[in-house]
Design brief:
374 residues, alpha/beta, Spore Coat Polysaccharide Biosynthesis Protein SpsA, Chain A, 60s Ribosomal Protein L30, Chain: A, 2 domains, eight-stranded mixed β-sheet, five-stranded mixed β-sheet, 11 helices, 26% helix
Length: 374
C-alpha cells in the first residue's frame, strides 16, 4: 500500500454551474459524480486512505453511499475544506483533486505518484497553443502553462503552506509562496474541469443517468390542541383548534417530508429538524419543506409526483383539497396535476375516529435529474 492519501474535494455550492442539481451530485448511471470520480481514482492506485469533503448539509447523506472512505465536513472555501481534510491525513504524501476534474486519465495519476520524491509539489500542466495576450501585450506562449489537478504534495509542506489567511486557487501556489519546490509534469486535455453547464459535453468518461424511479412513504399523526391555528398542507383551516406539536404541527407537510427523504434514501424529518432544537419551536412547516425540496434538487433528483391520504374524522377536508394541491405543487416546484390529495375518515374508530387528531400518509416518487435533457 502506498504512502499517499487521496483527498477529493466535493463541498462546493456549484454556484457557477447553472443547473438545477449540484455538479457533484449529477448521476452517471446510478452513481453521483463524486462517487464515480472517487471510485475511478481508487482503481488507478492503492491509496492508503481516501478522504472526501462534503457540504455540511450533505455530509450525513454522503455517508450512505460508502463505508470505504473517510468523510469530512468541508468549509466555506476550497482552502478551508483542504485544511479540515488534512487534519485526517497521516501519510507523508497527499494527492488533492477537485470532483470537477472528472475524467483524469490513469497515466497522470501514476506519473504524479512516480514523481512524488522529486519536489514538494508535483503538478500536471498543459502547454498553450494559442497566442497569449496579457495586459494588451503579446507574451511568449512557451512561458505559459495551464495548471491542473490532481496535485501531489509533501503533506508536511502543504500543511505549512496553508497555515495562512491568504487564499490560493491550487496547492502549488501555496507551496511556492513559502519557497517550496515545484515539479511540473505533462497533464492531459482529458482532465477538463467541469465548471459550466456546457463543459458536460466534453466529459467522455461519464454515462447517462439511469432511468430508475424511487418511491418513499411517509406517515405522521398529531393530536388536536384547542385555541391554536390549524395548518394542513401549508394552508390555514378555518377551525378553532390546531395541532399539538413542536412546530406549527402541519401533519401533512411532515408526512410529505418523510416521503421525499425516503425516496432519496436520506433518513427522516427528525434527522434534519430535531424536535429538541429550539430554533424549530413553532416554525412554519412550509419553511421546513422548502429546505428539503432544495436538498432533494441539490443532490440530483427531480420530483415526479406525490400522493397524499388525509385520515380525519374532522375537520372536513374536501373544501380545501384544491388549495392544498396548489400550495404543495408550488412548494415542490411541480405542476398541480402531479399532486394528488385523498381524504377519508376512520369510521369513528380509535384516536382519529374519536376526533382527537389527524393522520396523513404520503407517497413520493423521484427520478434522477436528467442533465442530458438540458
Amino acid at each position: 500500500m502506498s504512502n499517499v492519501t487521496l483527498i477529493v474535494l466535493c463541498a462546493g455550492n456549484s454556484s457557477r454551474f447553472g443547473l438545477q442539481a449540484k455538479k457533484q451530485w449529477l448521476r452517471t448511471d446510478n452513481s453521483p459524480l463524486w462517487l464515480f470520480v472517487t471510485n475511478r481514482l481508487q482503481s488507478f492506485s492503492d491509496f492508503k486512505n481516501i478522504i472526501i469533503t462534503a457540504h455540511k448539509d450533505e455530509l450525513n447523506y454522503m455517508k450512505n453511499f460508502s463505508d470505504d472512505y473517510i468523510f469530512v465536513e468541508g468549509g466555506n472555501t476550497r482552502q478551508d475544506s483542504m485544511k479540515k481534510a488534512l487534519q485526517r491525513v497521516t501519510t507523508d504524501y497527499v494527492m488533492v483533486t477537485d470532483v470537477a476534474r472528472t475524467c483524469v486519465p490513469k497515466n497522470v495519476i501514476l506519473d504524479l505518484i512516480e514523481n512524488k520524491n522529486q519536489a514538494d509539489c508535483i503538478v500536471p500542466t498543459l502547454s498553450v497553443s494559442d497566442t497569449v495576450i496579457y495586459e494588451n501585450e503579446t507574451i511568449n506562449r512557451d512561458n505559459v502553462k495551464l495548471i491542473q489537478t490532481p496535485q501531489l504534495s509533501n503533506t508536511k509542506v502543504l500543511k505549512e503552506a496553508l497555515n495562512t489567511n491568504i487564499e490560493f486557487t491550487d496547492d502549488s501556489s501555496a507551496i511556492k509562496k513559502i519557497g517550496g519546490r515545484i515539479k511540473y509534469i505533462q497533464g492531459s486535455i482529458k482532465s477538463k474541469k467541469l465548471t459550466f453547464e456546457e463543459d458536460i459535453n466534453a466529459l467522455e468518461c461519464i454515462k447517462s443517468p439511469s432511468k430508475n424511479f424511487f418511491t418513499g412513504t411517509g406517515f405522521d399523526i398529531h393530536p388536536f390542541e384547542e385555541n391554536k391555528k390549524m395548518y394542513l398542507g401549508g394552508i390555514n383551516i378555518d377551525v378553532p383548534y390546531g395541532f399539538k406539536a413542536h412546530s406549527d404541527g402541519d401533519v401533512l407537510i411532515h408526512s410529505l417530508i418523510d416521503a421525499l427523504l425516503g425516496a432519496a434514501g436520506a433518513g427522516d424529518i427528525g434527522e434534519f429538524f430535531p424536535d429538541t432544537d429550539a430554533q424549530y419551536k413553532g416554525i412554519d412547516s412550509k419553511v421546513l419543506l422548502e429546505d428539503i425540496v432544495k436538498f432533494i434538487y441539490n443532490v440530483g433528483y427531480e420530483i415526479v409526483n406525490i400522493d397524499l391520504t388525509i385520515i380525519a374524522q374532522k375537520p372536513k377536508i374536501n373544501p380545501y383539497k384544491q388549495e392544498i394541491k396548489s400550495t404543495i405543487g408550488k412548494l415542490l416546484n411541480i405542476e398541480k396535476q402531479f399532486v394528488n390529495v385523498k381524504a377519508t375518515t376512520a369510521e369513528k374508530l380509535g384516536f382519529i375516529g374519536r376526533a382527537e387528531g389527524v393522520a396523513v400518509q404520503s407517497i413520493a416518487t423521484l427520478k434522477y435529474y436528467d442533465w442530458e435533457r438540458q
